[in-house]
Amino acid sequence: MAVVKEIVPFDQDKIYEKHRDLVHLDKWVEHYRSYAMEGRCAAYIPALAMANPSQLGIAMAGPDGVVLKSGECEASFTLQSISKVIGFIAACLDFGTPYVLDRVDVEPTGDAFNSIIRLEVHKPGRPFNPMINAGALTVASLLGGRAPLTKIESFLTLIEKMVGKRPSINEEVFQSEWRTAHRNRALAYYLKETGFLECTVEEALEVYLKQCSIEVNTQDVAMIGLILAYDGFHPIRKEQIFPKEVAKLTKALMVTCGMYNASGKFAAFIGLPAKSGVSGGIMAAVPAHAGSKKSPFPDGCGIGIYSPAIDEYGNSVAGSMLLKHIAREWDLNIF
Amino acid sequence: MAVVKEIVPFDQDKIYEKHRDLVHLDKWVEHYRSYAMEGRCAAYIPALAMANPSQLGIAMAGPDGVVLKSGECEASFTLQSISKVIGFIAACLDFGTPYVLDRVDVEPTGDAFNSIIRLEVHKPGRPFNPMINAGALTVASLLGGRAPLTKIESFLTLIEKMVGKRPSINEEVFQSEWRTAHRNRALAYYLKETGFLECTVEEALEVYLKQCSIEVNTQDVAMIGLILAYDGFHPIRKEQIFPKEVAKLTKALMVTCGMYNASGKFAAFIGLPAKSGVSGGIMAAVPAHAGSKKSPFPDGCGIGIYSPAIDEYGNSVAGSMLLKHIAREWDLNIF
Amino acid sequence: MAVVKEIVPFDQDKIYEKHRDLVHLDKWVEHYRSYAMEGRCAAYIPALAMANPSQLGIAMAGPDGVVLKSGECEASFTLQSISKVIGFIAACLDFGTPYVLDRVDVEPTGDAFNSIIRLEVHKPGRPFNPMINAGALTVASLLGGRAPLTKIESFLTLIEKMVGKRPSINEEVFQSEWRTAHRNRALAYYLKETGFLECTVEEALEVYLKQCSIEVNTQDVAMIGLILAYDGFHPIRKEQIFPKEVAKLTKALMVTCGMYNASGKFAAFIGLPAKSGVSGGIMAAVPAHAGSKKSPFPDGCGIGIYSPAIDEYGNSVAGSMLLKHIAREWDLNIF
Amino acid sequence: MAVVKEIVPFDQDKIYEKHRDLVHLDKWVEHYRSYAMEGRCAAYIPALAMANPSQLGIAMAGPDGVVLKSGECEASFTLQSISKVIGFIAACLDFGTPYVLDRVDVEPTGDAFNSIIRLEVHKPGRPFNPMINAGALTVASLLGGRAPLTKIESFLTLIEKMVGKRPSINEEVFQSEWRTAHRNRALAYYLKETGFLECTVEEALEVYLKQCSIEVNTQDVAMIGLILAYDGFHPIRKEQIFPKEVAKLTKALMVTCGMYNASGKFAAFIGLPAKSGVSGGIMAAVPAHAGSKKSPFPDGCGIGIYSPAIDEYGNSVAGSMLLKHIAREWDLNIF
Question: Which chain D residues are Cβ-neighbours of B186 within 8 angstroms?
Fold first, then answer.
């Protein structure tokens, strides 16, 4: 199953060099796959509940175009909360960081991703950060263009620039989420009342749930992680996709708030900017300076992981364990 | 006022090399000093209220022993919450990280440093992290040895190893805090009830308030920051003071929870592990990989800042602005 | 302006008897009218903001059909939260008290009427009581018949039985509330998610906002208060409108939760079951045993008050003061 | 076991009259005793944990001096939270109601009796009401005289005036509470910081825990309830012990906040001013106007109940059920 695939012109030597690393990766994937049983597929979105919980796949993309893959790395899954990272970047591109930060703060909360309490306690304050649902809805409402279709378009365009192909929206997942989005509607109406929604509730919700329903695989996610690692620069296409300042800020947000209310534990025990989604995806960015010679990617890399069984916080169980193991074994850590 | 001082044997060249940087630093210090007026000295501890709010000093300590200083860098101040970092490290040294983490979590909260709410809402959970008062009191109660004197001794010994001299406790500040520590006593009794205090309330409080009252200057703080930057290794004395794992974990905690409930903004806009105290001190660590050639310390450094006028969160106003300016100008950022 | 009006066949003597009391009432109304300036008309519902804040009117209805009136007693106003009492009674009539109480608790909260926090903290618990918006929305969703029109019909029918005429819905107020009901929609979607809404959000909201928009005057409200005072029995028409148990329970709810988060102060300083609305209406019930010989209604009465300028809690300023004065002077108190 | 005992000169006829009622009472006590198994004796105060959970006793004291008793009515128990009622009255007697209400509000909370959250959320507000621990500690700190001994003396004197004998303090219970009062100390230190404690923490705590440790039996409690029912007037000794206004206010507080966070359910389903303690005691007041001809006390009465097994809220399980049954059967209800 494990493969090394190049995006740039083929170079046989690189594959041999990576062979040893692949052997490790395959072994680790097989080992941690068994821990998936300790989690459960997200039940509140019916379409997600049907995923095969024993899947575990990973892709690691280096700046030279080499991609290391193992396990169910080709499986399709929806971005879910990983899309919050992209939405935040898109909004900063559209309106500039100060405009966005006037409407959403950047403080971690310790609360669950769908918590509404702080909106009332700190009323009429901004949502605490763009990585919780309240903040992500505010960000979705900002996106350029008035109509949901235009907003989601700017979303798809940004992803296309990063992963090299236009992603599609999983209509089944979107419909499933749309019908059961009571809590998100509650959050959106609350934000509407306090003035932190710049379009209608239904429009914000359509954008947010469509961005959550964008279909990717681990390599797509790894590519986005790689560009974040390189401060917005696409190291293969040699193109600055978004400004360095936005990238630094986004990675800081991923560290402080990216892994739901287990973000502190991720920072402490893994030490990489990462963002998870309830579909079981994890995106991580290993900046060049945090790469190590022990690893197959001494100049940093992006990491995409998928394993749909999630824990009480909403993070992939086997995915988190695999990422922790890799970070420790290969000495990847920004701190 | 600005001086370059060496700790290791004198080397005239280094001073000349740094001259240009010093000119910058002096200019910045003078510029940001005026912003101190926007803050106020901590009023709830009478002895702190008497500080001169217009003071601003900085020391930056490099791995080669060079220390760059500017402003009121020699002023004495008490560690206050910066001591929480040292207490956490001391407890990990005494009992091992797993033992400590069984008693205190590592999640940011978004709440004020002296908040008690979460102890009840998440009862009977651990305090959320060791950088808020509740968690720091639990950590103080763990420290080796039964008697407060023994506990505080292990504290002083650790600092001595790092800064090269035994610090003293400011008795006046300690007495002032002791008499007005009603909120901390409330926290400590709450922790006692929920089983997260391993000594008496009065003992834990004595240790905690004494550690807060340890007197330092900016160079001392910069040295501790430097050792954190070097993962527990003292680059001048060539000695591992505490394990790399503890250092990584501590820096992660500083990023997610170190600057009170403005930690998210610090991570987003400064991007360095840092810890502040209500006396107006800030300690920051610039790991070797986060140093930049633009800066006088391409191999990383430790930073100690002092300016006693603090903002609504408890962070030094001028100190935070100076640190942000330095990080931006010299491109220091872990993300 | 002050009049004594009979509902039952005219009896000249009664009017004379009451003359002394009317003189008092007129004086008190004039006195407390000036305090209305300390409040403001509810601003969040545009149609309410246009009311004349200096109005103050009262009607007191006795079991013998005598009604004592003073001030702007004929002014029309919408029920707003007073309708929560009627909704609760209607639901108990439709489904029985146990069914209703399985879906809404009867505990006071100390929180604002539109608070959402407790729904999350005590999730997945019932709304705390039917006198806060969350509970009232749950109750509205229970009402008999599937369609909003049927639900609101059972509402209008119950009021008609009590006041002797079919009330109308103020369409302008309803439309105004419907367009600005973001917070109530947030509450309703939250309830939908936790399973405490037995119809769609839009249906529940239509019923709730229409019941809030029912137009009444002080005499109508006094009649409903009188029937509550008489444990569900209409003392003039000699008909049991709803069971005694429901009436007792409802009056208990009015005492513990009826006056928003000033209910405790109302119980303490006035001592009568009462319910207010943000339109400035107050309904109070004086049970026969709580009537006193000092008062014109020794056998109890119902009280309807209207004065649209409300305080920070949502209660009519002048109305509350007038009620307190009456209760004290005429020794009306259930405790 | 059941007896009828007079306090005033003996009158054989009265006993015969009550015989039928006693037969009922005995039957009900035996019936509800079995439900005590669903509760548990308070475990957090070691001395209370040793009580016999199957005990259930009741005394009902009428204005004519007749006392109806059944079950373990002679058992001694400590007042615990019932003392909060007496402390509030004593403080109002010492300083006047306005002074006391400036320092403690009268709003129900829906929170547990020992909750600390609201002190922070509504900081720097008064404790929400004198029936929760925070408010009771504030009240204890107000009591006349500086020293704890003087404060507790004014407490004992007030009880002596009501029950006709000087009660004693159970030193074993007091010592047991004193040693384990961590949560109460946390509350007291919090109040000290916010300025709502008018003596030292240790003094307030000594007074509060001693008032909790006052030993009574059901007849004592029934007598206090009777005097509350009679608005502060001792109907047997024909003496006004405290003003009517204080009595009305206290009964309102008992209804809205007296039964911990089940107060709403008590008001709704029982409908009598009542106050419970974690020792398993309940005091209820049936005002003259709420007495009924169905009951042995048509002119009202006081009720004292004891059954030490308590529920999750802190209320006696069997005691609450017995009180509810009595109120329903004998039609006692203030609403």
Answer: 116, 185-190, 193
Give domain status of residue A334, yes or no: no
Is residue B134 predicted with pLDDT exceeding 90?
A: yes
Report yes or no: B133 and B113 within 8 Å, Cβ to Cβ.
yes
Q: Are residues D268 and D314 in the same domain?
A: yes
Q: What is the DSSP string of D87-114?
A: HHHHHHHHH-HHHHHTTS-----SS-TT
Give residue B109's domain range: 82-212
D68 lies in a domain? yes
Domain end, chosen from C185, C212, C239, is at C212
Distance to chain C for A110, nearest Cα, Å: 14
Q: Are residues C52 and C152 in the same domain?
A: no
C335 part of a folded domain: no
Instruction: Choose one of B212, B236, B257: the last residue of a domain.
Output: B212
Q: Does A267 touch chain B (CB under 8 A)?
A: yes
Regarding whether B139 and B32 lie in a shared domain, the answer is no
> Is residue A333 part of an annotated ligand binding site?
no
Instruction: Report in angstroms the alpha-carbon separations of B164 from B234, B243, B283.
Output: 11, 19, 17
- From the centroid of its chain, how far is CA C137? 16
Question: What integer is the mean pLDDT of D197-215?
Answer: 96
φ, ψ dihedrals at B286, nearest 5°: -110, 100
pLDDT at D111 (0 to 100): 86
Do A205 and A262 belong together in one domain? no
Interval D226-254: pLDDT, tens: 999 999 999 999 999 999 999 999 999 99
Tokens of B76: 């004495």
C312 and C267 co-located in one domain: yes
pLDDT digits (tens, 9 = 90+) for A40-58: 998 878 888 889 999 999 9
Active site residue A32: no
In this complex, is the C-beta atom of A12 within 8 Å of any C-beta atom belonging to chain C? no
Task: Examine the pLDDT at A307 and tell me if it is beyond 60.
Answer: yes
What is the per-residue pLDDT across C115-174, written as a single tens digit (0 to 9) for each? 888 888 887 789 999 999 999 999 999 997 778 889 999 899 999 999 999 999 999 999
Do C283 and C255 contact (CB within 8 A), yes or no?
Answer: no
Contact B193 D201 (CB under 8 A): no
User: What does the radius of gyration of chain A's CA atoms come to, in whole angstroms?
Assistant: 19
Whether residues B265 and A128 touch (CB distance < 8 A) is answered with no
pLDDT per position as a tens digit, D293-310: 999 999 999 999 999 999
Q: Residue with structure tokens 């007792």?
A: C248
What separation in angstroms does the CA of B134 have from each of B82, B104, B126?
A: 15, 9, 9
- Are the CB atoms for B252 and B106 separated by under 8 Å? yes
Collect all residues of chain B within an 8 Å Cβ-Cβ radius of residue A118: 110
* C201 near A CB under 8 A: yes
Does residue B288 fall inside a structural domain?
Answer: yes
Beta carbons of B186 and D116 less than 8 Å apart:
yes
C-alpha–C-alpha distance, residues A180 and A175, integer Å: 9
Q: What confidence category does residue C9 fall into, taking pLDDT thresholds of 50, 70 and 90?
A: very low
Inspect the interface and report whether the beta carbons of A120 and C115 lie closer than 8 Å. yes
Q: Is A316 a catalytic residue?
A: no
Say yes or no: D42 and D21 in one domain: yes
**What is the number of domains present in chain A?**
2
Q: Taking CB atoms and an 8 Å cutoff, what residues of chain B touch A105?
A: 264-265
Do A128 and B110 lie within an 8 Å CB cutoff?
yes
Q: Residue A120 and residue C117: Cβ atoms within 8 Å?
A: yes
Q: Which residues of B touch A128 (CB under 8 A)?
A: 110
**Are residues D58 and D106 part of one domain?**
no
* Residue with token string 């040893």: A20
CATH of the domain at A61: 3.40.710.10
Residues 206..265 of C with a Cβ closer than 8 Å to A: which? none
* Separation in Å, CA B242 to CA B159, B226, B231, B247, C231: 12, 13, 8, 7, 75
Q: In terms of pTM, does the model score above 0.90? A: yes
Inform me whether the C-beta atom of residue C195 falls under 8 Å from chain D C-beta atoms. no
* Out of B16-25, C80-89, D87-96, least confident range: B16-25
Based on the residue annotation, tell me whether B213 is a catalytic residue of this protein. no
